[in-house]
Design a protein that fits this description.
Layout lengths: L2 E9 L5 H11 L3 E13 L2 E7 L2 H13 L5 E4 L5 H11 L6 E3 L14 H11 L5 E2 L3 H8 L6 H13 L4 E4 L8 E7 L5 E7 L9 H14 L4 H17 L17
Parallel strand pairs: 1-2, 1-4, 4-5, 5-6, 6-7
Antiparallel strand pairs: 2-3, 7-8, 8-9
Helix pairs in contact: 1-7, 2-3, 3-4, 7-8
Amino acid sequence: MRRLLVIAGSDSSAGAGIQADIKTAQAFGVYAQTTITAVTVQDTQGVHAVDAVPPGIVRQQIEAALGDIGADAIKIGMLGNGAVAAAVAEALQNIGLPLVLDPVLVSSSGRPLLDEEGIAVLKSRLLPRTFLVTPNWPECEALTGLLPDSDTALENAANAFKQLRVRNVLIKGGHGSGSAVRDVLIEEDGKLSIFESTRQQTRHTHGTGCVLSTAIACSLAQGKPLIEAVRRAHDFVQHALRTAPGLGSGHGPLNFSQS
């Protein structure tokens, strides 16, 4: 069985974060270990409180997971603050595994989930050793100063990520407009691939970024090429959106069973 280490926050509603990551890995037949960076109090209405895990405990979780069961890929989600981000960077500095980084900066309800110090650590110490980073439009703008709302802006943003020494970037299109959603993959050799689906009119979108990045990491752990990993993840999320169970009074969770 292939193994995935997920480094992320806990979501009490279980629609995003560590809980969603475990469910996604289970759907892909991958064994997920976890490093919890923060405990959040949230429901489908939003994030109500956040308590960061001490950096030393974060690092020890990573070391325990990699030192015993091991991993074939790593996914990073919510980091919370600069001290935790630095602890993660230190723990992973000599680890040569495929790393997928979902730059969780702000919750869908608008609550900041990474401070300025954390963003600086992410840009200087984590992005350069990341195999794939998966920003949405606001995250792309926060990291590069460019909102990818046109082909030219997207190309400029991709070049800005190269300046940050990112190897591959998947710019997610969920925050765009129009009848289609376009996720755009720019690989390190400059190759551009578009993954397009009909935009679904639903409020049940909680955890889509977490699920997409974890699904990609699962396929990488299984040895799939990057473009296939992204295609499988894109299709997984689209099905999960179409068949969402309709739970909660706000942004509800997806369907992880794919049935």
